[in-house]
Amino acid sequence: MESLERAGLAPLAFGFVLGALLFMGLNRALNGHGGFLRKLSTTTRYLLETKRKAAASLLRRLARAPIMRALPADE
């Protein structure tokens, strides 16, 4: 605690914020290169998001089909 008394709270808070931002940035970069596979929860989230995007893409393509345009939007 001597360093806190000598330097004050500002450097400690700055170091905390800088460390948190560095962690978040490196975690995001790692996940972007496949690091999400290191945990079950992030793997599951990735797979669910991929499935959701594929379904949305399929629905958009189906909506352009002439036979589908005749249906009401909620169907």
Write the element-wise H/E pattern from the N-terminal end onward: HHHH
Beta-strand proportion? under 5%
Mean pLDDT: 87
Span of the ends, CA to CA: 66 Å
Q: In DSSP terms, counting alpha (H) and pi (I) runs of 4 or more, how many helices?
A: 4
Find the structural class using helix and strand composition: mainly alpha
Keywords:
75 residues, mainly alpha, single chain
Write the layout of secondary structure elements.
Layout (H helix, E strand, L loop, with lengths): L1 H6 L1 H24 L7 H24 L2 H4 L6
Task: Summarize the model shown.
With 75 residues, the chain is mainly alpha-helical. The protein is 77% helix and 0% strand. The protein is elongated and about 75 Å long.
Any overview of this molecule?
The chain has 4 helices and no strands. The protein is mainly alpha-helical and about 80 residues long. It is elongated and about 75 Å long. It starts with a helix and ends in a 6-residue tail after the last helix.
